[in-house]
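Spend some time on this chain, tokens included, and walk me through the fold:

. . .
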Amino acid sequence: MTTDRDAGPRVAVVGSYNHDLSMSVASLPTPGETVLGGAFTERTGGKGSNQAVGAARLGATTSFVGCIGTDRFGDAAVELWNDEGVSMDGVRRTDEAHTGVAFIIVGDSGENVISVAQGANGHLWGADVRAAEEVIQSADVLLCQLETDLEPVVEAARIAADAGTEVVLNPAPARDLPESLLTAVDVVTPNRAEACVLAGHDPTADVAASTLLDALSEFGVPRTVLTLGADGALVDDGGTREHVGAIDVDVVDTTGGGDAFNAGVAVARAEGRSIAEAVRFGCVCGGLACTASGAVPALPERSAVDTHVVD
């Protein structure tokens, strides 16, 4: 990976935008149970958009490639990206589908459950990614997730790999990954549940982290980062494994923690940091994001992260 330090880190994000509809409850409902909720909020979200905004707040020149509707939720996305300085050169608007919507329930413990209506995210095509080829080729790091169809993710990873742009894949939500994608990915960052699914287990299976890393190493991705929430992350750098601890925070809402972590890893890698250093930086970003409610409002600014990170 080559980076022009004077130009600053450059991150391209291919992924989803969702409008978040959130409700707070005392405890998360079990299947078939109805619980009375408290506060209701409506915010911008989506893993792709959150990670793009997170990268921009961390000082990266950030471009987003995605698809949104022509409805008011799509208008909110455009306003967000304008406010945050995220380039929209790779964004297409469609009147064939509504903008993606996420329904989020957050318990008093800070844990959450999320369901997504894909909408326009399902209309992001490989052709859209090819139209944004220059955006991806000029980036130091491409960051992808799986809230869109696989076709645009595979195409983006191919373009990035051919150009020497590092590919970071946040495999969420987890699904089977084709070899055409895995061969182009440089860093994969599943959480424990996603790693279980990728390894062929139930997402709630009680499988040791080391066993999950053993299974994921079979995918052939050079670097695997297994995120462990409050326990930090395990880094497998081609056989060398290291535990990176989380920072100690008072958790309010974990909704944006994973997105902040991945944005941090992408930006740090774009700055030329080692994978362990990048994960340490990402853990700070993820921890700080859990100290406030909502995903985008909680994404940390670079100044806040730098107070916790020692270069």
